[in-house]
Structures are given as structure tokens and as C-alpha cells.
Amino acid sequence: MSFFGNLVDSMVSFANDSARTVAEEVINPAVSIIQNQLQRPRDVLEQQQILDNLQESNGSHFPGDDYHSPDRKNWMAHLSVDKLTLNKIVWPGTHDSATNGIGDPVFTRWLGECQTLSIFDQLVLGTRVLDIRIQEDRSVCHGALSSYNVDVVLNDVVRFLSETQSEIIILEIRTEFKKKDPMGFEAYLADKIGQFLIHQDDNLFDKPISEILPKRVICIWKPRDSQKPRRGGLLWNSDYLKDNWIDTDLPWTKFQSNLKHLSEQQPISYRRFFYRVENTVTPQADNLVVGVKPVTDRIRKHARLFISQCVSRGCGDKLQILSTDFIEGDFVDACVGLTHARIEGKV
Asked: Residue limits of the Phosphatidylinositol-specific phospholipase C X domain (predicted)?
């Protein structure tokens, strides 16, 4: 073959290889992304329809579903503190509790704000489990977004405790993913809220609230790199708050996962830790809808359906902490209603 023939063949081969590389590294991934963007809304609608159909066919009835607290700020006080043991409570919680007003109101808030109420207002509404994420400078954060100092959270907690007498709070504070622990944080917590702290004690789970008062706060501190709190101390460590969180924006997928993992837990009477179910879904990068509110609303409205399904499937005695984004009074009433039913021996 002539020199020019070889040259032409080489050029053709190079062109074919280049075209193949462009197809594999540029065109195919782009097509895949477009296909995913078109398919994901269909997946979401299909999963929402499954939940809607389940709601329509089965309803959301469970023992205590008609309960309406006369005073959500003091709902524990309106139950019998002599009969209400720590492990019988269905704790209404908030997910990413301290994100009200986080980020820029135009450009980033809609990506990270999971609650619009202050910590104090959440507690007044009936929230009893707080999920607080912090970083090295002690400001609260959600991923890359940060907001006010954790002092604001603790001051709201102290204010609420000073205005009530029988309400117990589970306060979870953790160092956010990929962030550094603030220095001296255990001593700081002891100084700020030490007078209210319930010492870690495995024997407390079976005790009535009346025997735990006047101490009011179970504080679970989860550092990333520092030594975790010792057993028997002022603070509780990460062993005492467990969950099985999955990263998805598909509501039926999350609903099923929550039911499955809850069903695998021990009944509350045998458990020596708190188990949390998060009635939330999370925005995903492969879906055009990335705002927290429109995404989490896919499952948020189905909290009562979830409780109903827990009871009907035989794991109503395993539900302990149920948390949500953008908490509302009806969510609190549902949790308190099931708590009331437990006290009456209906669950």
C-alpha cells in the first residue's frame, strides 16, 4: 500500500476513534442525563399515585387517630405523667430543625430550608425531637449552607423549658458531614443547659416521666472526630439514636424502606435506644425539581398513612420517633394520639 494510502487509513482510523470517544464520553452521557430527566417525573408521579391509592383504599385510621391535643405546648402534661413511660412516647420530631432562614432568600434558601419555624415555635407546636447540625465555628448548617450560632437554638430550648414543667426533649446535636467538630463543645453544652440534662442511663426507658422530672433534656452529641460521650455522663452518644436513612426523592420507595426497617426493630419494651423514622425525601441531582419543599411534600402529607400502616402491619409497637420537614400541628396530634392509645393499652 502506498504512503498516501496508509496515511488516509490512519486518518480514517483516528477519525473513527475520535468519533467513538466523543460518543462514549460526551453524547451518550448527555443522552442518558436527558432520558433520566424525562423519566424521573414519571417515576415520581407513579409512586405518588401508589400512596394516594393506598390512602384511598385503606384510609389512615389507627388507635388514637381522632386525638387533638388541647395544648400542644404542654401535650405531655395533658397525658398522665405517672403512666407515660419514656419508651411509650411517639416523639414528633423535625428533620434539619435549625434551617429556618438559612442561606440567601433568593438564591439558596429553597435548596436547604427544611423548617420555617424557629426552634422555640417548633417546641410550642409540639416538636419534641430536634435535629441540629453544626460546624467548627458553632454555627448551624445544612451541607454548605450555614446560619445562626447554636446559641440561638439553646436559648430557645431554655426559654421553652422555663415556660413549661412536664415536657421532655430529645436534643440531637451533630457535626455536619465533612465539617470539623467545634472545640470544647461538651463543656459548652454542660455550661448552657447542664441544669436540664438527663444523665445517660439505660434504666430510664421503662421509667414514667414523673420519675425523670425535673430533668428535661436528653442531649445526644454526635461528633465526627472527637471522642464520643462516655456512658453514664451528662450527654448521650450516637448509640442511643439510630435510623435507617436512605437518599431518595421517590416517596413510595422511602415509605416502603421506612416500614421494612421499622418492622426489623425490637419492640419498644426491649429497646435501649431511640429509633427514628424520617417521613422525608431528599432532592436528587438527576431530577429537575431540587427545591426541598416541593420534593418533601411528596411524602410529608402521608404521615398518618404511615402510622396506620405500621399498626395494620403489626409494628405499631415499634414506632418511636417520627420526624418530618415543615412540621404542622396535625403531625403532632397524630403522634400524640398514638402515644395516648399506648397509655390506654390500645396498641
From this structure: 101-203
In the chain, the domains with their CATH numbers are: 59-343 (3.20.20.190)
d(CA 237, CA 345): 31
Helix axes 28-58 and 292-300, enclosed angle (nearest 10): 40
What are the two backbone dihedrals, phi and then psi, of residue 289, each rounded to the nearest 5 degrees?
-85, 110
pLDDT-derived band at 347 (thresholds 50, 70, 90) equals confident
How many whole angstroms separate alpha carbon 120 and alpha carbon 124?
6
Give the list of residues 6+ apart from residue 58 with CB closer than 8 angstroms, or none: 305, 308, 309, 312
Strands (E), the chain: 91-94, 129-134, 139-142, 145-149, 169-175, 217-222, 241-243, 274-278, 321-324
Burial of 332 (0-12, 13-18, 19+ CB in 10 A): buried
Spatial CB neighbours of 199, under 8 Å, sequence gap ≥ 6: 215, 232, 233, 234
- Rounded to 5°, angle at Cα 268 from 275 and 90: 65
286-334 pLDDT, tens digit each: 788 889 999 999 999 999 999 999 999 999 999 999 999 999 999 999 9
